[in-house]
Amino acid sequence: MFARLANRPDVVSFATGAPDPALLPGELVTSLAGDALARYGNSVLQYGMTRGFGPLLEQAHELLLRRGIDRPDGTHIATGGSGALHNICLALLEPGDVVLVETPTFAPAVKVFRSHGARVVTVASDDHGILPESLDIALVRHDATVVYLLPTFHNPTGRTMPVARRQQVADVLARRGALVVEDDVYTDLRYRGEPVPALSSYAPDNSVYITSLSKTLAPAMRIGITAMPPELLARVLVLKQGIDMQTSTFTQAIAAEFLASAASRAHLARTVASYGAKLDTLVAALESAMPSGFTWTKPEGGMFLWVTGPPGFDADAVLDRAFDAGVAYLPGSIFHTDASDAMRLSFAGVPQENIERGVKLLAEAM
Amino acid sequence: MFARLANRPDVVSFATGAPDPALLPGELVTSLAGDALARYGNSVLQYGMTRGFGPLLEQAHELLLRRGIDRPDGTHIATGGSGALHNICLALLEPGDVVLVETPTFAPAVKVFRSHGARVVTVASDDHGILPESLDIALVRHDATVVYLLPTFHNPTGRTMPVARRQQVADVLARRGALVVEDDVYTDLRYRGEPVPALSSYAPDNSVYITSLSKTLAPAMRIGITAMPPELLARVLVLKQGIDMQTSTFTQAIAAEFLASAASRAHLARTVASYGAKLDTLVAALESAMPSGFTWTKPEGGMFLWVTGPPGFDADAVLDRAFDAGVAYLPGSIFHTDASDAMRLSFAGVPQENIERGVKLLAEAM
Q: B24 in contact with A at a CB cutoff of 8 Å?
């Protein structure tokens, strides 16, 4: 799909999950780099501690506290959220282990688990996320200890697990001695509603929390932030020495300046305003254009919305026709769900002025 | 050792292998970051291709050509030299595989091989590097296909494999269908003598070449450059998607600007002049101060020199006394050699004015 898109710049793409390039803060990053050099000197260009750059670890602790996580002794800086996931897989998984995932789920994570030899098993989920009873049964049946979840502004559906469900899932984890890997990289992109504490905050001893600055500062910084039980962190850090020794001190120092600055709050506010307006435009366009029988999620934030078609609709079958007509999406089937009637629409990276046209083309192709 | 050093800033440390912080080009990096943003726009902050940022791949190809390696279809950008080594280990090694290494060798690489379940076997070496006949025998005896070598300005000894030896080693590799992982991160730090083509240039189909910009630009950029057979690269790139998705587009763009600029040549010349002068000072101080019976290598570049003591000298036993007296080194025993009579002196990061004093303290402690 992405190779095809590269050759068709005219296509309105709801497929790509990347941030809006127009919102990436080029001048801000350059000026933060200068600030970091002025404040910390050449140490920002030198080798640093595997665990992370001290000032960024302090900022990370503050950020985690705002999400309900108090783990200064369990935090480290990884090379992006994907680097964090790789590190933890190396530390946790043996070939043949089972990793449980909600359905649908973020497909690249499944590839990562499988590349570590794990067997991935989907667990039934509803609009509020994974079903606690199904999780409980699956943990026992598969002798599993690891479950991967994306509780907030879920990729691909945009759904968010409510507080009550978080508490129920945390209870199951604690009862079974299992560990959740909580992938929480969209949580600052909230357009309405009240913030929800991280799932990990309800199960501090049964969780690995992963977030990143890729969606709020820039993907190219490759800054992941994690929190986990300290004894697990110790194993991860030994492994990280051999994985990439350390994450760039330079981009870590820029990230520390970013999180400490008023400019970061202003930049985040601009991003939230822009993406929120796009989501509103997308929902209004779907309401006015889509044929009857189609429904969609109502995300309070993030980058994704999930459209489900009427009985008999096949999102895979329509893909080529939609693409030829000038609009792209990702069919739900790639996200490890049995449903072939769904599709993911990613709105954050689409120029605001293209959204209505894209939805019209989509509606015509359906 | 490094934890002890952190508490004793007065100690002259020949132990640390990091670049001289005074030479790290802070202002240059900031200005290159601005240049990169001006030239490529916000794409330098966005997600990019797993293989690497196009303009840096082009510069990397030029750099590799200067070292005798013509592999544009086998090049990728890794997250530092250590990231490159991790990627290739994931692609090449199964638990129980044997990795051959010269002796002494770079100890952290051995830790990496072992973390991938490999058994590491040392092969006899002399002042010119690994012995071709011993390599040949070891490849057959251990049913091994991978050998890890540091042919130029070797860490820890500073020795360089001459051209004739490179050709002999390449012949063995080709005959046995084995693969060398060539770790070549010091090669631009040449203070005298003529450049030698990379070992990989003599065995293009039997080599994985790894270099980085950590010693010439800055460690914090985390830029590794590799060349390998294209079919192996394809496997590495699939794995890298799950390891860290991609190396920072931002530091890659800075690196591309650096390699394309006259400023990089000026900066490298300054670095070479400074480190070369330190090596001269170190050798002169050793000649005037060390007790008889001590000998040392005569490196033409790099960051390390290897001192061997007289019969009965025990570098491990003297370490504490030297440290208390105010000078630190790394004992040879940690570099996977039977010899307990040797020590590694790292000179690049030591302030020029401390070298003579450090050697005097060292000589007194011996």
A: yes
Is A219 within 8 Å of B41 when comparing Cβ atoms?
A: no
Average pLDDT over residues A264-286: 97
Taking CB atoms and an 8 Å limit, are A244 and B86 in contact across chains?
yes
Say if residue A293's pLDDT is above 80.
yes
- Residue B252: its pLDDT value, please? 98
ipTM for the assembly = 0.93
- Across chain B, where does the E strand assignment appear? 12-13, 75-79, 98-102, 119-123, 125-126, 129-130, 146-149, 179-183, 207-212, 223-227, 295-296, 304-308, 327-328, 330-331, 342-346
**What domains can you pick out in chain A, each with its CATH number?**
2-17+264-365 (3.90.1150.10), 43-260 (3.40.640.10)
Is the CB of A241 less than 8 angstroms away from the CB of B111?
yes
Q: Would the CB atoms of B80 and A245 count as touching at under 8 Å? A: yes
Contact A222 B244 (CB under 8 A): yes
Which residues, listed in sequence order, are joined to residue B148 by a DSSP beta bridge? Answer: B101, B181
* A32: pLDDT strictly greater than 90: yes
Give Cα A310 distance to the centre of its chain. Answer: 28
Q: How far apart are CA B166 and CA B170, in angstroms?
A: 6
Q: Inter-axis angle of helices B163-176 and B132-141, to 10 degrees?
A: 20
Which residues of chain A make contact with B42, given a CB cutoff of 8 A? Answer: 21-22, 24, 26
Q: Give the tokens for residue A181.
A: 């890997």
- Nearest C-alpha neighbor of A70 from the set A259, A198, A237, A231: A198
Low-confidence ranges of chain B (pLDDT < 70): none
- What pLDDT was estimated at residue A1? 74
Q: Which residues pair with B307 in a beta bridge?
A: B296, B343
**B199 versus A2: which is more confidently predicted?**
B199
Distance CA A130, CA A149 (A): 8
Interface probe with B: pick from A2, A35, A86, A270, most Cβ of B within 10 Å: A86
Cα–Cα distance for residue pair A109/A17, rounded to 1 Å = 14
Q: CA nearest B52: which of B228, B263, B256?
A: B256
Residue A228 belongs to what H/E stretch?
A: none
